[in-house]
Write a structure and sequence with these properties.
By secondary structure, the protein is mainly α. The protein has one helix and three strands. It has a three-stranded antiparallel β-sheet with strand order 1-2-3, covered by helices on one side. A hairpin with an 8-residue loop joins strand 1 and strand 2. The longest helix is centred in the N-terminal third of the chain and has 52 residues. The protein is elongated, with a radius of gyration of 26 Å.
């Protein structure tokens, strides 16, 4: 005797599974997205520390930090009138942008440290909280 019933899932079973997957995505999704934002801030902090180290070596070679006008570009290309320049001081021979695809801000002398290097965060504006918070070398 043959079994007339075919194997498979019923519509109700499929709907229950989809509902469970939707609930899990609703609970887990926001936490994963929050971690991604934090990762960008962490990346900016690491890049800023790399700039700090390169600037310290630049200062040892030349006797002073680059001016605000010379900027971070002085780490990869001799501004022309700097005695003792022995660069490039960054591995990739280029100035990376922050994780939000904007240029880092550099100021010497700095307002919060000997020199200030900062990224304005996700919104690109001073201040802010969370992903929009500034990331700088004085923090």
């Amino acid at each position: 005797m043959k079994n007339d019933r075919q194997a498979g899932f019923t519509l109700v079973e499929l709907l229950v599974v989809l509902a469970i997957i939707g609930l899990l995505a609703g609970l887990v999704g926001p936490k994963v997205l929050n971690q991604l934002g934090g990762a960008k801030s962490d990346t900016a902090s690491v890049q800023i520390r790399d700039f700090e180290q390169a600037l310290e070596i630049y200062m040892l070679d030349t006797g002073e930090f680059p001016s605000t006008e010379q900027g971070l570009e002085a780490l990869v290309q001799n501004p022309g009138n700097v005695a003792g320049w022995n660069g490039p001081y960054l591995r990739r021979n280029e100035i990376p942008q922050d994780p939000w695809k904007r240029d880092y801000q550099y100021q010497y002398p700095g307002e919060k440290a000997d020199f200030d290097i900062l990224s304005y965060g996700a919104d690109g504006k001073p201040g802010g909280e969370g992903d929009n918070a500034d990331v700088g070398n004085w923090q």
